[in-house]
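**User:**
Everyone, produce one record:

**Assistant:**
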Amino acid sequence: LSLKFGDIGDLKGLVIRLLLTTSYYQLSVQNWFSLQRLQLLYNHSVQATFNATGIQAPATHSFHCEHVSSLQRYDALLVPSSANDLSQLWEVTFTDFQIQGFNVQEGHFAYARDCASFFSPAILMGLVMSLILLLVLAYALHMLIHLKSLDRHYECKASPAYFAQMKDNDMGDEKEPLRNSGNESYELRNQQFGKIYI
């Protein structure tokens, strides 16, 4: 698949060539296509070649990826084929990349197989945060249930407080006048005039 851009500045006859292959996989019982290499041609010769990794889909589907790039921050699906050629001098990035090599019908892409893996960093972070929140919630529920069981335990064991009633005649026997001062005062003979039972 060749994308011809013509003359762009000093680049005469710029062409981006995508080399696609198809293979039959017995496990999936269908043909798959894959992008093997990407070549940059200008001035009527191949100037840079990149090997593609992980760009594949069933032959009846298309392949879609938000970024297909030679840069590490975009997972570097395009790798320079050799350290000796000019590929090291190029940075290639396709944004909103979609390709279908075979079985194109009525000029429209088929259902796309996306390059995003299920366990992307954002999804993993969300799963970790959900796990932490579930652990906090489980701990809080455990503490709440534990506190309720303690209340029921003490409720069964405890009996109401009992204060012994005192009669007026008992109080008369329990006190005697103090003779130290001019005012009439009394002190208790028996200090235990009330008992509390729990």
